[in-house]
Amino acid sequence: MRIAFIGGGAMGEAMVKCLLTKKVAVPQDMVVSDISPVRRELLSKEYGVSTLADNRKAVTNADLIILAVKPQNLPQVMEEIKTPSPEQLVLSIVAGATLSSLCRGLNHSSIIRAMPNMPAQIGEGMTIWAATAETEQKQKELARTVLGALGKEIYVTDEKYLGMATALSGSGPAYVFLFIEALVDAGVHIGLPRDMAQELVIQTVLGSTRTVEKTGKHPADLRNMVTSPGGTTTEALLQLEKGRFRSLILEAVAAACKKAERL
Ligand SMILES: NC(=O)c1ccc[n+]([C@@H]2O[C@H](COP(=O)([O-])OP(=O)(O)OC[C@H]3O[C@@H](n4cnc5c(N)ncnc54)[C@H](OP(=O)(O)O)[C@@H]3O)[C@@H](O)[C@H]2O)c1
To answer: Whose CA is nearest to atom 40 of ligand 1?
Structure first.
């Protein structure tokens, strides 16, 4: 299988790295095309993949073409690689680029649109993806294998969920990082050394996440298990409710979703 990446930035690199780590591909299977000479040098040195500065050349003979450029660079890229061979599969991770706009721009019908997220950089990503009706089953299986190398993947038949997922899992790591940062700062505020606060917070977030996953219990049930009557946790929860913690999160995600629809 030959994979051509158009764009070898943060996400392109994450995908190359995960495909190699999970042994889905070997360096000889991959070519990365990027306008940046710095990125080309880094990728070939670090991962042994071949690199090019010519998008058209890069996609020749590729079974899978992965579009990993910023949305503003997509029109030019689509013009350059327009009308790929019918059997080639195009997988785009470009935020906001719909299946129909990709089909039009590329004059092609076998297309997958995916929304991964940043923890894909360590193989712990969450990706949601959809495909055009013309995409064959074996091409979908290929996409599942490639996206599965980034972490978890969910296939949806309705593309509308990708815009929503952009606001939840796509932007989600930023919300979680902010929460972690705030908790660490809170630890420092009450007198803990910063490194100790950081260690306590990371394991607390990890452990709580795994508890939700492993027990399958509703988060509210788990929260009640930590909240003794008249205790310390309920004091903190009161402050969070006063500050509209829950509705603020709903409003934040809804705002991101609206923005994703406008892009
Ligand atoms: N980062 C995330 O967490 C994330 C999550 C989900 C989806 N995405 C999507 O993934 C895509 C890539 O994001 P990223 O964070 O990897 O961006 P990035 O780091 O900016 O990578 C894009 C790379 O493409 C290069 N490039 C620009 N124009 C090009 C062209 N015409 N031909 C070939 N290469 C070109 C850029 O070079 P220059 O820097 O020199 O322009 C850069 O090296 C975006 O569309 C984004 O919406 C990102």
So the answer is: 36
pLDDT at residue 160 tops 80:
yes
Closest-CA residue, ligand 1 atom 34, reads 34
Q: Choose among 105, 146, 150: nearest CA to 3.
A: 146
Which one of 108, 124, 157 terminates a domain? 157
For ligand 1, whether the C-beta of 73 sits within 6 Å is yes
Regarding whether 151 and 22 lie in a shared domain, the answer is yes
The verdict on 148 and 224 lying in the same domain is no
Asked if residue 263 has pLDDT above 80, the reply is no
pLDDT of residue 228: 96
